[in-house]
Amino acid sequence: MSVYSPVNSNSRSLFLSISSLLFSSLHSIADLSSRNTSRFFAPSLAFFHPTDFIMLDFSIRETIEFDDSTPSLTEHVDDATDVGNDHTPSPGDDDDDSFGEDFDHAESDSRTLADENHGSPSPKTSRLSHLFTNFADEFLDIVEEDAQEAVIAAAKAQNADLGKMVKQHDHEIGNLMDEFYDHVSGHEKRAKAESENVRGEMKSLKRSIDKRDQSHSAFQNEVSDRFASLEQSVVGRILLLEKITSSRMTRLEKSINARFASLEQSMNDRFAELEERID
């Protein structure tokens, strides 16, 4: 069963301070204990340094999960204090260098020393180690969950940014498509209007050509009628002139014949008179 309790910034600072105090106390305990005890705590203490723990403040989540079977943080501190009071410092037994070693190397050294000495830590030390291990496991779970939440948050932020970029690109593509459709629609409208204008001009030109054809046909008919009328008039006038000429020629011929007859008679009379005179 798990119990969740919200932790604000002040609670987080208090939690980090108490945890730092706890780790410092555990380091002091390990420093004041025998070599076997120090070697027993070395793997955990070398892995969790107080300074490194404080640096993880920004990655601790807002909700911390606790197990019912795990003692409270106050009990951890009290137990650490009790253990620290039970031990007296041993001069010349300084193992600070062991706390900076790698976790795997320290654990290997601890197992080697345990096999060599065939000894086991005291019950209080075992209980403190168990409490510290539970606390470390709980802290690792918190850090792991915070890391997962940070990765998820970063992925969500990246997905949100990508979503915004995709939406922006979709919006830009939509605007370009709208502009393209507007351009195509305007071009089609202009082409349709120009086509209608051309059709109107063609119809007007056709009507004009039809009118010109009709006018030309009427003109041709009028010219034909005029030529026919003129031809009839000329023929009539020629016939009339022929009649007049024939009539005049007949009268002239009669007049000439009459004059020749009169002249011949006059000449005959004069010749007769001349013959009479000659006789």
TrEMBL record:
Residues 102-118 have a biased composition (Basic and acidic residues). Residues 71-127 are annotated as: Disordered. Residues 92-101 have a biased composition (Acidic residues). This is Uncharacterized protein. It comes from Fusarium solani (Filamentous fungus).
